[in-house]
Amino acid sequence: MHDRHSRGYAPPTHDGHPLADERAAHRYPVESAAGRAARVRQQILAVFLPITAVLYISAEALNPRGTDQVVTSTAVAVKLLPIAAAHSSQLYVSGSLSVLALGGLAVSYAAIATLVTGRGWVIATIGALLGGLGAFAGALFNVMNGVNLASAASAHMTQTAAARFLVTSFGSVPAQVAEYVYFASEYAAPVVMGFALWRSRAVPRWLAVLFTAGLELAESMGAIGPIVVLFMAPFAVAMFLLAVWIWRAAGRPAPLTGTTRTPAATPPGTAAAPLPATPGR
Questions:
Q1: Whole-angstrom Cα distance, residue 270 to residue 256?
Q2: Of 162, 213, 221, nearest to 191 (Cα)?
Q3: Which of 120, 167, 230, 236 could form a disulfide with 199 if both were Cys (CB 3.0 to 4.6 A apart)?
Q4: Residue 168 domain-assigned?
Q5: Which domain holds residue 53?
Q6: Which residues of the chain carry a pLDDT beneath 50?
Q7: Is residue 7 part of a domain?
Q8: Is residue 160 part of a domain?
Q9: How far apart are CA 23 and CA 17, in angstroms?
């Protein structure tokens, strides 16, 4: 007798055609575990964009008027301390929201860069690095600008001592480095990332322009009260639309690929290609 490895044997399948499962797998590839993981991660990154927009706008809207100045002298500190003392709780909230918004902005830059996988991916990577670095430096700087100002205003010390503390804090080397890096990166990163989106055509070009212009305008806003929401609306629209594009891009799973070649299809009624014979038992 010949066993299952004998000449002319072809493995049966559920539909009666040899190798049908292999042909079906080749025609309809399944998503790999790595592809599913990458898709879920990209969708999580997409959620950061609208959250960042809400945090950013809320922080700017709650920031008391006139408290966005850099304390460079005792005179400036003496001017800011009464305002901060009258709105210390508001300053704590807006300062905390600013830190959260800048952290979310760093993640958002990385999420936007995932859209650019072909032409312009190097530029997008540079933009993400600049955006992340600027957001990190901005978080440090905003702690000094908002939280430290509120702390000095609400502390039990004389106004002269509080002013001296603020001048020393803003004049320190870490504060100066964070300030320079923040202001240089926050205006350069949107331009670089917007150019990468424009060049790659990963999104409509008008959306790349809206993102760049909206973020530049949002970052230039001062502490002017709730009306700032109107000026930052283009930034919010761009972030929500980019989140949709990132989510849709994540919803297109990459097919499972491999190095195994799929055997040629065998027409119905034709004998399968013979396999090498093995000795019988």
A1: 30
A2: 213
A3: 120
A4: yes
A5: 35-250
A6: 4-10, 13-14, 16, 18-19, 24-29, 255-265, 280-281
A7: no
A8: yes
A9: 10
